[in-house]
Design a protein that fits this description.
- The structure is a single chain.
- Helix 1 packs antiparallel against helix 2 and helix 3 packs across helix 4.
- The chain has two domains: about 130 residues, 3-Layer(aba) Sandwich (Aminopeptidase); about 130 residues, Aminopeptidase (3-Layer(aba) Sandwich).
- The protein is an alpha+beta fold.
- The termini are far apart.
- It contains eight helices and twelve strands.
Length: about 280
């Protein structure tokens, strides 16, 4: 195999012309790049996008957020991780997200290249739906897709979810990771919402379920399972071939739930945060 060459652009359509087929070749593993690139395409916002060509074929890709300075990578070999670190040298990179082996290889390469300290901050497990298996018994109630008139309630529920997981909110709703998603409430027979599940728009036959949230005082009654089943069914009915979700691998309750519903773990992802040498020196 010949040495590869990285190419980059801020033109989403140019990137898709080169790397679109590659991203679509593994919708589950590439779910985050697929949805992120689609958001850039629809919004018209710029982003630094790159792809690796080896022996005339695209073998990998990355996204480098111009505002967040975070890098998202498709799976790479250690040599490829080193080459993309060389390619990104001189740019600000504050974090990387990828499957665990790729993220670790890039973090090590970035440390060697820049002297930055790397710290693993998040570990998440990727699941792909096999055969959807609703719980039995199924909680009483119904699923209801939220409408524009539910926006105030949606913002409140998403805010509670962020508080529960310790995630900082975006400056505005439009900039949040929720703005482009469809949400479904699971409601009790009297119409009271007791759980919520979101899903991304379908891209390359892939839908990601995110987030799933039930207030603490309502947990243990099957409501999260019901909400997850509702959005999973809707995705399948819409023609999705890959329905995926992420879970905290250290939460045995959610992992057991998703596996009972038919979700199969396929990979572990790690986020590394970087601290530049000059920042550490003045801390």
């Amino acid at each position: 195999m010949s040495a590869g060459e990285w190419h980059s652009t801020e033109d989403v359509l140019e990137f898709l012309a080169h790397a679109g087929d590659f991203l679509r070749s593994r919708p589950a593993m590439h779910n985050t790049p697929l949805t992120s690139v689609e958001k850039l395409r629809l919004s018209g916002r710029p982003g630094r996008l790159g792809w690796l060509v080896e022996d005339g074929e695209v073998r990998a890709a990355y996204l480098h957020g111009p505002a967040t300075h975070r890098v998202n990578l498709t799976p790479l070999t250690p040599d490829q991780a080193g080459s993309v670190a060389d390619h990104l040298a001189g740019r600000e990179v504050v974090a990387v997200t990828a499957d665990h082996d790729t993220s670790t290889a890039f973090a090590e390469a970035w440390q060697r290249k820049t002297g930055a300290a790397a710290e693993p901050t998040v570990r998440i497990r990727l699941y792909r739906l096999g055969t959807l298996t609703p719980p039995d018994p199924f909680p009483e109630g119904r699923g209801r897709v939220l409408q524009p008139t539910d926006h105030e309630d949606l913002v409140r529920w998403c805010g509670e979810f962020l508080d529960a997981v310790g995630e900082a909110p975006a400056p505005t709703w439009a900039e949040s990771r929720f703005a482009d998603k469809t949400f479904t409430f699971w409601e009790t027979p009297d119409g009271t919402p007791v759980s919520i599940a979101g899903n991304t728009p379908m891209v390359a036959g892939m839908v990601r379920v995110d987030p799933v949230y039930t207030p603490a005082h309502l947990r243990g009654r099957g409501y999260a399972a019901a909400a997850t089943v509702e959005v999973s069914r809707a995705a399948l009915a819409a023609g999705a071939t890959d329905v995926v979700l992420y879970a905290n691998p250290f939460n045995p309750t959610s992992n057991a739930l998703y596996q009972r519903l038919g979700y199969v773990p396929i990979s572990e992802f790690t986020v590394y945060a970087f601290t530049a040498p000059e920042t550490r020196a003045t801390a």
